Amino acid sequence: MSIKSIKEGYLVDIRPNGVKGKRFRKKFAIKSEAIQYEKWILSQYHNKEWLNPPSDRRKLSELIELWWKYYGQLMKSGRSALLKLKRIDKDMGYPTINRLDARSISDYRIVRIEKGIKPKTINRELSALSGMFISLIESGHFNQANPIREVSALKTFEHEMGYLTKEQCLLLIENLKGLELLAVKLCLNTGARWGEVLSLTGNQVRNGKATFVNGKNGRNRTVPISQNLEGELCDIKEMKLFNGVSYDNIRKNIQKVAPNLPKGQALHVLRHTFASHFIMNGGNILTLQKLLGHSSIQQTMKYAHLAPDYLLDAIRLNPLAEK
């Protein structure tokens, strides 16, 4: 008998796979708990479904719809992730789940690279796909291993980060007027993202501060602004301050005053410009992290090399330095 009465209560002593199999011994104060444990052990060892799970033949598109219903639509970046997932599904020929493995994912990456897509973009796409599977596994909507788990990210290299000189900033301001001018001034004064500027309302500007709500990491942050800038913002009568501002016109003017900027930065260069000049003028890197709303100091450290005294000890402490 596998359950024995002992002085301390009850002892479960069982070998579910026979005399030569693994032995399980556990003490319990009451008999009902011992019986439940015995049943659990037996069920674990006699249920062999996990050895050969049935192949999941659902279409990837079905899982994307499930993910969107239970997770994606609740995420701040859900719409962007959904577009990535649908692009993967289309480019892979609308596959079934059982066709997704390391090889098919690697083939997909090669096709994307041959189309000129950057490794960083491809990594983001596959990160969205992996995140989808992780969410579905956690919720019980997908009962197999994450097919992306064995695919390592493509190696990427740091790209050049451009910013406007003070002269270019002044020239840009001269070329703009109205709300476009004010939007650019706000970016250069606060390091705000373009989306944060567009969503700014009159209620978020008061007491010499601009509060940007629900930023990229979902947090709010408040940045001090000058009295003059606050006055200009408060003069706008619309609730949403920058309705109708032309992204394209500002981008064209930036390209006009700084034609040699690295590709792909567009209006984000205004945020880089704020951060770069803040550090070059002696600003503290931890303060900059708070102003930019970075969740990690590693994100902000990309500006550290612009500090006036950055690595100057290399001159003073190298082996040929004059003592």
CATH uppermost class of the largest domain: Mainly Alpha
CATH topology of the largest domain: hpI Integrase, Chain A
Helix content: 40-55%
The helix/strand series, from N terminus to C terminus, equals EEEHHHHHHHHEEEHHHHHH
What is the 3D form? elongated
Arithmetic mean pLDDT: 88
CATH superfamily of the largest domain: Intergrase catalytic core
**Beta-strand residue fraction:** 5-15%
What low-confidence regions span 5 or more consecutive residues with pLDDT below 50?
none
What is the domain total for the residues? Answer: 3
- Count helical runs: 14
Distance between the termini: 86 Å
Instruction: Give me the secondary-structure category.
Output: mainly alpha
Strand order in the sheet with the most strands: 1-2-3
Gyration radius over CA: 29 Å
Written account of the structure:
The chain has helices at 31-46, 60-70, 78-91, 102-114, 119-139, 166-175, 178-190, 194-198, 227-234, 247-257, 268-280, 285-292, 297-300, 313-317, and strands at 3-6, 9-14, 24-28, 205-206, 209-212, 221-224. Helix 6 (166-175) crosses helix 10 and helix 7 (178-190) packs across helix 11. It contains 14 helices and 6 strands. Strand 4 (205-206) and strand 5 form a beta hairpin. The mean pLDDT is 88. By secondary structure, it is mainly α. The chain has 3 domains: 3-47, no CATH class; 60-139; 166-306, hpI Integrase, Chain A, CATH 1.10.443. Helix content is 47%, strand content 8%. A 3-stranded antiparallel β-sheet has the order 1-2-3, covered by helices on one side.
What brief labels describe this structure?
323 residues; mainly alpha; hpI Integrase, Chain A; 3 domains; 3-stranded antiparallel sheet
